[in-house]
Amino acid sequence: MKQTESASSALRRLRVILVQTSRPGNIGSVARAMKTMGLSDLVLVNPRFEGACQHEEALAFASGAQDLLAGARVVDSMAEALQGINFTAAVSARLREFSPPVVTPREFAGQLAANGELHAALIFGNERFGLPNDIVEPCNVLVNIPANPDYSSLNLAQAAQVLAYECRMAALDGQQPASPVGFQGEAASAAQIEGMYQHLEQALVDIGFLDANNPRKLMPRLKRLFARAGLETEEVNILRGIARQMTARRRQD
Ligand code: SAH
Question: Whose CB among 31, 36, 217, 247 lies 3.0–4.6 Å from 62's, allowing a Cys bridge?
Fold first, then answer.
């Protein structure tokens, strides 16, 4: 699927902020998760080690996303990290007594894709202690991945991958015509399909496959089969061509 302008623009309106990350490998993995889904704006708030983005482990885990690490900004306050942002999402495994409204990754992604005015940030916590309340409470929403209640804490980069994937899917969805069957060409009209059925039925009689006096359930079954396929105009024309040829050959015999 080609990523068009509108999909990439939704993804460009999204920043990933990592707060006090401890493991360089996780930062590298987040960069990779982001790049695979078309995200690029990464900000680190007070990472727990020097030279976070140049660290050997970060580079190794980033793999082909080292450019994203090189472009990441390292800051020492949330205020700085949130510059230019008008919609903040605390990403947390833990639900809290005083919390912004809780949404799923899919709901968050849907909001981002639907509203072109949003410049959103996904804020991820530290591997051991997550996000502090003073960062969560002022956020617009708390995004919770509804994981297994017996063990709901994902690895930081895996949580980032889930979020990035949902945002990409929502961004791409906006480009698809609303169709449950996934037409690529023009959907065939009911009249075209009906004409094709009559044509096909006659051809099946002509070749002796269908007994006009005892048709059983052949045509209803074929209709159900074709209905599942979601026929396009060109496909209907191909089927009519086949039927025409069957009839023509038979009449030559
Ligand atoms: N022990 C920490 C979890 C840290 S996991 C805690 O109790 O909060 C590191 C980060 O990954 C979290 O801060 C959060 O941003 C993200 N994360 C992990 N599991 C998640 C889940 N189920 N839903 C949302 N975010 C999750």
Answer: 31
